[in-house]
Write a structure and sequence with these properties.
21 helices, homodimer, mainly alpha, 478 residues
Chain lengths: 478, 478
């Protein structure tokens, strides 16, 4: 240390300054490179982000034209600024969010403007001394009450922003009224500029490369299901091979994909809330059954919890003996493959919005395999072995049997979505040419044997399905 | 139907009108009662909500005084409205959120105001024709760039609101400058009114019954742990008794408590982000290790996933034979009770901010019980029984062994929190009078044997603990 500082002192202030500058420049360069790298990552992860940024820039620039052009400016004056502010706070990534905020802002301004005007009028009747006191009281009561209403879960989910703007506009109109007698004029200017800002945002958001919350939810739910399918495929290969090959060096990243499913509840919920604001678009009607996606999401997550448990046996210290492993391998891999195919097909059915055609046969197969597994365990094949060594295998077997139940529930929920959202039916022979059980399957599936999806319920009622199948669609459409 | 309508026709328009009015009044009354009931529920769930609402009302009323009093009004004029708006948008439920928004708004206004003024000046140099074009270009570029930056996960977590206000203020100042030549004056007025609004919000938020995000996170993490403990207690009673008593009719609501833990990730994350804004308060320093709570939360959730799997065996159709159940009952209940006590004590340690004293002995006990369970399974006690019937028992046993590992990990994370946050040590004899392993435990726990928490690291290094224990605190404080 001391030698170094002695060298420094010898080299003089200019050399030291240059060295310091060089270090700083190096650090700055590294920082710039890091930021550039991150920017690239953020953009590559989802290119729609770049487009969204440009859209926001465009909307703000368009609205600020009010300021530059004389004839437009003369109509609104300084209030034109509200239009710019509105675009900044209303323009969101998804159409649902933008529409929700725009409508909230517009309606809240309208209502609160009227109420504020009323409050101003009422207060002005009470004379010069009473006016500020009465106005203060109104503002206090309204702000406190509306702030409390924001805690109601239902209001929070859909109208939180509107309630905020309600307080804001009420204060603005009623309090300003004390100084400025042109309250009505001001309220009207505020409302019209806000409407212009909201309309610009919504139009640009919808007509230039729109991002629909409904699409995001739709794909999220389907992809989550797919991730579970991918895990199951990988699990089968991993669990029944490692002990033979020793340490397997495959890329195990596909085994991590399902982890995101575990914590997807909140994003599904908020997307479903936003999707409800969206008009009909692409393959979705205005009142698309978004709630049913949450149902499917919940069931998918329940399946993911089982898979999380399954995953812990991949790295368990207690490895079961190879001979036992090979005995249960057949029914286990059958269950895994059938359950994986079920999930993949359900995910695909949602993505393509067609009724899942061969899912029932996959579920039947997985149930048969589960019964085989049970029977195999029943025969007491393992009596000679140590029970401790069987535990992981038994736990895996038990989890797999549970997963079969889970996939069945998911399938039911997807079938319900298919009927609620009028999914298209596809020709069985086209989608599942390799299925031997086609005939059996058609009789079992009232949905997929029906060419006109809009008459599903009638077909259901006349079919000889189980009582649950008969009642469900009727109840849901009642 | 027809008879009813015939009766209606007979009764004349007045009677019908009255009947309709009665129905409407009834409906209205029912609606009012429902809203009142809901309001009561929302208030009772968390009485701080009522206080928060009153605080917001007070803050807005205080700031609107600017308008009513001549001397205050003269300083700011119409701009005083910005102070009211600032209170409305800045005042949040927790101190962290209010401070975060206030600081974001203040700093963003300062920076964007300066930049906007610069842009206005630069544009005005380019002549009358070039000015609007150049201003438009600046606004477009800045809005697009900053909107894109909002997608960076780190920026989004802490500075999202600031970035929004940055765009807003930049547009406001640079665009307004085109018409209004007193830009500097306007920027300064905007800044000072926003500072007044933010300061009022922050002061009222902190000094009148504050709600700290840190407190919420702290209690959330501790309560989640406690919920798992409660489940384990209930599980033990439920699983080993139902088959003897037949259908047990106990209240099973305590078995549902853990479900919330599964989806607590997002609230923990956002609270940790908000807590970082908060100054030192109560038992927390300014740089309290909030990140460590997330670590503990993640491990707790991993334990909750195992418990979710465990829960499915409570209602499993395959019930294991009573004689087998009674054989494994002892080690299983021991594991459950020790793991439950570990979780409860850890939760309590966090709540009271004292070092957990008897946790290590509970973990040791649960490990011993797990070994006993393994040994019991090892002896092949169950060879005569059907393997299929053993599966649920084996799965439960396996899950319990996993839960022991989980609680150990949680304990390590809590110990690290205890050392990072300098938890108090308590006299061992006071807290655990019934523990026979006190002597053993003191030698094993470098933290709790140390009376001065601030010298933990020195004690650690000189102690004869394992290498991991020695290195960890050193690394963390380096």
């Amino acid at each position: 240390m001391e030698i170094a500082s002695a060298n420094h002192e010898k080299s003089g202030p200019i050399t030291r300054g240059l060295a310091w500058l060089e270090i700083m420049l190096g650090k700055f360069k590294a920082k710039v490179i890091e930021v550039a790298r991150k920017t690239k990552t953020v953009g590559q992860e989802d290119p729609r982000r770049i487009i969204h940024s440009l859209k926001v820039g465009l909307a703000i620039t368009l609205v600020s034209l009010f300021y530059y052009f004389e004839p437009l400016y003369d109509g609104f004056g300084v209030s034109a600024m509200w239009a710019v502010l509105t675009v900044v706070v209303v323009f969101e990534f998804t159409v649902g969010a933008t529409l929700g905020r725009g409508l909230n802002r517009g309606l809240a301004t309208l209502l609160a403007g009227a109420l504020g005007f009323g409050a101003h009028h009422l207060a002005s009747l009470s004379g010069e001394k009473g006016e500020p006191i009465l106005l203060g009281l109104f503002v206090f009561l309204l702000a406190a009450a509306v702030t409390f209403v924001r805690f109601f879960p239902r209001m929070k989910a859909r109208y939180d922003y509107g309630l905020l703007i309600f307080i804001l506009t009420f204060c603005l109109i009623s309090v300003s009224g004390y100084r400025d007698d042109e309250v009505l004029d001001m309220a009207q200017r505020r409302l019209s500029t806000i409407l212009i800002g909201s309309a610009t945002s919504v139009l640009i958001c919808i007509f230039i490369r729109p991002v629909w919350a409904g699409d995001i939810l739709h794909n999220l739910v389907a992809n989550n299901m797919e991730k579970l399918g991918i895990f199951l495929e990988g699990f089968s290969a991993e669990y029944f091979k490692t002990s033979e090959d020793g340490q397997s060096n495959h890329d195990k990243s596909f085994l991590k994909g399902y982890k995101r499913v575990l914590s997807s509840k909140n994003s599904e919920k908020s997307m479903a809330n936003l999707a409800r604001w969206e008009p009909c678009h692409g393959r979705f009607r205005f009142r698309h059954p978004w709630k049913q996606y949450l149902e499917i999401g919940t069931l998918t997550r329940q399946c993911a919890y089982k898979i999380e448990a399954l995953n812990s046996y991949l790295n368990s210290e207690i490895q079961m003996p190879i001979k036992m492993r090979s005995k249960i391998q057949d029914p286990c891999t059958k269950i895994i493959s059938e359950a994986g195919q079920t999930l993949n097909e359900l995910a695909n059915a949602i993505k393509t919005m067609t009724r899942p055609s061969s899912v029932d046969s996959h579920i039947e197969n997985s149930k048969t395999a589960a019964d085989n597994l049970k029977a195999l365990l029943h025969t007491g094949l393992f009596e000679e072995t140590d029970l401790l060594e069987i535990i992981p295998a038994a736990a895996v077997a038990s989890l797999l049997i549970h997963i079969v139940t889970c996939t069945e529930k998911i399938s039911e929920a997807v079938q319900e979505l298919a009927s609620l959202a009028h999914f298209k039916s596809v020709e069985q022979t086209v989608t599942v040419p390799e299925q031997p059980q086609i005939v059996h399957q058609v009789t079992e599936q009232p949905f997929s044997s029906n060419a006109e999806p809009h008459h599903v319920i009638t077909v259901d009622e006349s079919s000889t399905g189980s009582p649950e199948n008969e009642n469900e669609p009727v109840l849901k459409t009642g």
